[in-house]
Design brief:
single chain; alpha+beta; tt1808, chain A; six-stranded mixed beta sheet; three-stranded antiparallel beta sheet; 9 strands; 39% strand
Length: 147
């Protein structure tokens, strides 16, 4: 796998039936090691170990409904009241982050109404804050501390 622009960590890999699996640190189960999963596991580790986001308030691949379609958010971080606080969309490192990627994350957030939306391909990270009262979104220079 490619070197990411995220802190390294002691990930756990195993081989099963000729496939490489990585341990998901939130769901505590092994998943197929794809480029997107590589990014997701690194980003989860970054949130927990470096930014001190509470592991218990992070959900991976949660289901949500948008325009009667069932969708999956990559990572959702909840506030202490149990409401979505941040939505994170992970992409493979070879995918360029674009307006379309931001739009996809925003579609998920339209339903969840989290304060923050992050998109990452492991090399580049874009974090936006939404003011739902004034209906504005602003790109931040860095990830916010957990409130």
């Amino acid at each position: 796998m490619v070197q990411l622009n995220l802190p390294s960590f002691e990930y756990v890999l195993k081989q099963e039936e000729g496939k490489v699996l990585i341990l998901d640190i939130i769901r505590k189960k092994y998943l197929m090691l794809t480029p997107e999963e590589w990014v997701r596991q690194h980003f989860l580790n970054y949130l927990i170990q470096n930014l001190r986001y509470p592991r218990s308030l992070i959900k991976v691949e949660g289901g949500l409904q948008f325009n009667k379609l069932q969708k999956r958010s990559d990572i959702v971080v909840f506030n202490r009241q149990g409401n979505p606080w941040m939505v994170i969309e992970c992409k493979a490192p070879d995918l360029t982050l674009s307006q379309n990627t931001i739009r996809q994350a925003s579609v998920y957030n339209h339903t969840l109404r989290a304060q923050y939306v992050v998109i990452t391909n492991g090399l580049q990270h874009i974090c936006c804050v939404t003011d739902w009262t004034n209906n504005t979104t602003q790109v931040l220079a860095e990830m916010p501390a957990y409130e």
